[in-house]
Amino acid sequence: MGSLGVEIGRIVECDTSGRVLLDCGDSVPKLARVVADLTDEQLTAAVERGQEALIAYPNGDPDRPIVIGLLRPPDAPARQAAPLTATIDDETISLEAKKQIVLKCGKASITLTRAGKVLIRGAYVLTRSSGVNRVKGGSVQIN
Description:
By secondary structure, the protein is mainly beta. The chain has one helix and ten strands, in the order βββαβββββββ. It has two domains: 6-70, CATH 2.40.50.140; 85-121, no CATH class. A hairpin with a 5-residue loop joins β1 (6-14) and β2 (20-23). The radius of gyration is 22 Å and the shape is elongated.
């Protein structure tokens, strides 16, 4: 382990609870936590490819490894943007993306995230309805 508490290892196994087994050159693989940005699919692919991972040790503790990222091989091709799926028919335009969709115009934007968040931003936001204009949620905060 380096003096900064960071090293390179390989993920040798992963489970559905977000934990992985790491090979860091020690005799026994270590159980580790993973940062939230890595999906189960990315971890499984890393195991299959034998991909290297960057591992941090909070406070230099070798018994608490955390995978903070996956390292791309030096000869790997440049990463391509995830494809956007668009479906258009006479009545509907449907856009689908893996992470988020953002619509922007000047100072206004609408963002849809895969976590289910809808973010509406603008210099002036108006909602108008000829029927009920309802705001529902687990909690509602105004101002």
